[in-house]
Amino acid sequence: MVKIEGLHFAYKPESPIFKGFYLTIGKRERWSVTGSSGCGKTTLLYLLAGLWPPMAGCIDIRNGAHSSGHAVTGLILQDYGLLPWATAAENAALGLRINGVDKKSAARITAGWLKELGIERVAGHYPGELSGGQRQRVAIARTLALEPSLLLMDEPFSSLDALTRQDSLDLVMNLWQKHISTAVLVTHNMEEAVYWGSKILVLGTPPNTSALVIDNPGSGTPGYRHSPDFLEKCLQLRLMIERSSRGEKNGERL
After folding, report:
1. Distance (Å, rounded) from C-alpha 174 to C-alpha 31?
2. Which CATH number fits domain 1-64+184-254: 3.90.1300.10, 3.40.50.700, 3.30.70.20, 3.40.50.300?
């Protein structure tokens, strides 16, 4: 479980992004975070990852660290963050090596992930030799090798073509079902947000003082993308983003 209580954060003191913000994310929930540009989507993700500390309030991640010492959170970035001079296998093992796992064990663990992600044949290739989808899968392998309790994703599909983007989202959905406890996806794409998130957090024009959450129980189910419910939920989300960007912060649950 993740609990955000009384969060306050600002880059400039006079312009807070979050002010007295509360949110609870339950174990094994899939969340989408969306909203207009500049609303604080990536900021929230980095706060959850512990990259930036709150100025006030607290963020409590209660899943607990693994006994192996693996990270509580795993972060997949928009640009994947791969080292250009390292092979796909070396990039996938990077997090484990930083955490002190010996080279042989790290190679064994990441080889299993590269195989599960269908890219074991490019293990010896460098990022410049890989397609966008392959680079993304290397980044996913690197993160999941750490066995995170909380998976955080910052626009991980934005640079992919439409078909690869859809396939990649399905892939991560399958991985979530098998391996992942709790996952949060930041995206500006409404269809992506609706397909992924069983709960959708809509952020508005800062400061964000309350959580506007849309319940979306049909997310991830077979055929959902082509159902009337999906189209209706996309329209509902569009209206919520428009309202929140105008500063209509009711903090209601829909």
Report:
1. 15
2. 3.40.50.300
